[in-house]
Amino acid sequence: MKKLLQVDFDFAGPFGEQMSAALKDLAESINHEPGIIWKIWTENQQGQLAGGIYLFEDEASANAYLTMHTARLKAMGVAQVRGQLFDVNLPLSAINNAPLTVK
């Protein structure tokens, strides 16, 4: 079953175009993570938050990524990483035009 991973953490920047330029290589590397389908990058400059919404093929892939990503962020100085896994209800998501395949 596909798993949605929601991650967020306190982040002082950069944001916007500067974030895009600074993290381009990281974004490209995420495409090679086992089980990844897609990621939506999230940022909130006013709230000083960043993170992402990821879709993985399965729970094992999502958990492995969360463990690795948490360690990577902590090595970059992020004190606390919040991550939650969710099941995806494919039939209801399809009604609302989610880019998913119903199986």
UniProtKB/TrEMBL annotation:
<dbReference type="InterPro" id="IPR014910">
    <property type="entry name" value="YdhR"/>
</dbReference>
<protein>
    <recommendedName>
        <fullName>Monooxygenase ydhR</fullName>
    </recommendedName>
</protein>
<dbReference type="Pfam" id="PF08803">
    <property type="entry name" value="ydhR"/>
</dbReference>
<dbReference type="InterPro" id="IPR011008">
    <property type="entry name" value="Dimeric_a/b-barrel"/>
</dbReference>
